[in-house]
Amino acid sequence: MSSILPQNHAITSSQRVLSGTSDKIGTIQKRYSQQLKTNISRQFPLFARVYCVSSSTTTKTPPLTEPLILQPQPANYEPPTPINKTSTNTATATSSTRNVLNDPSLQSTWAHRAWMASGCTTVLISLAKSATGAIDSQMWAGPIVAGCIGYVLSDLASGIYHWGIDNYGSAKTPVFGSQIDAFQGHHKWPWTITRREFANNLHALARAVTFSVLPIDLLCNNSVVLGFVGVFSGCIMFSQQFHSWAHGTKSKLPPLVVALQDAGILVSRSQHAAHHRPPYNNNYCIVSGAWNEYLDRSKVFELLEMIFFFKFGVRPRSWSEPDSEWTEENETQSLPASN
Ligand SMILES: [Zn+2]
Ligand SMILES: [Zn+2]
């Protein structure tokens, strides 16, 4: 305290005088302090303002509630590497994606190939019997028109079926459970369909075609009916292949497939890409995609969803908020290690 006093300041030993001196010292200190503040604020006005702003955004580290205990470390001790949260997430996603791509469930088995052979044979029997009937009767127009109608309606049927399994049921649903589960998985990892082997991708539909169409082949001899059934069931069976091509990269697809997609004969890549974007409730058709615009514009599926809800109290999945269990993971974020 005495260090701030002038050197020639007189101090007596009297308590009263000392007390009075203390008051003076206090007064000098106050004046000195005020003068110092004034000078600082005049000379560094910006400094004071910056100090206030920075103090308002500083976060305090919470005090330690437990005492730090330092333990002796062994000679070969290595401190833990700091964890980068982003890189950890990417690494986890990469690992997850690599597991999906190396999943043996994407490969064809001999059972898958057998079902494909069975399905293709069934469709060919329909078409062959229809053609034979047309040759015998010299009536080609009927079977050809019926085949065209089969192609057009197969797109509508693929959309209705896709809408149904996207929105209702679960993996535990009888008969359709595995298809529902597969389509939910497809929404999470859409690009894996292009890695799925041909027979693996189509065998379920080939089996359905075998069971439903083979009896018609054996019992029916009408060339018009068989023309319709052959084309319709063939398009349904191969719809998963058309779907896979819709997920392909243009430069990697066969030129003929790209030409058919561009002509609207097969579902286009851009149209199906919209199905995998919010709001996840449109472009369900996967043969030609010809019905998508009409169905989405007329809100047919939304009307059916309302009817199902008010009649049975069942909410479709598309009404729920996007769920990380079925919305798409970013391939580019997690794929590089597998390519
Ligand atoms: Zn879908
Ligand atoms: Zn898809």
From TrEMBL:
Residues 86-97 have a biased composition (Low complexity). Transmembrane segments: none annotated. Residues 63-100, 317-339 are annotated as: Disordered. Residues 151-319 form the Lipid desaturase domain. It is a multi-pass membrane protein. The keyword Mitochondrion does not apply. One of its GO terms (biological process) is unsaturated fatty acid biosynthetic process. It is found in: Membrane. The keyword Iron does not apply. InterPro entries: Chloroplast_FAD_CarF (IPR052864), Lipid_desat (IPR019547). Residues 322-331 have a biased composition (Acidic residues). GO terms for molecular function: palmitoyl-[glycerolipid] 3-(E)-desaturase activity. One of its GO terms (cellular component) is chloroplast. Keywords: Membrane, Transmembrane, Transmembrane helix. Its main location: membrane. PANTHER family: FATTY ACID DESATURASE 4, CHLOROPLASTIC-RELATED (PTHR48140:SF1). Belongs to the fatty acid desaturase CarF family. This is Fatty acid desaturase 4, chloroplastic. It comes from Nicotiana tabacum (Common tobacco). The gene is LOC107760919.
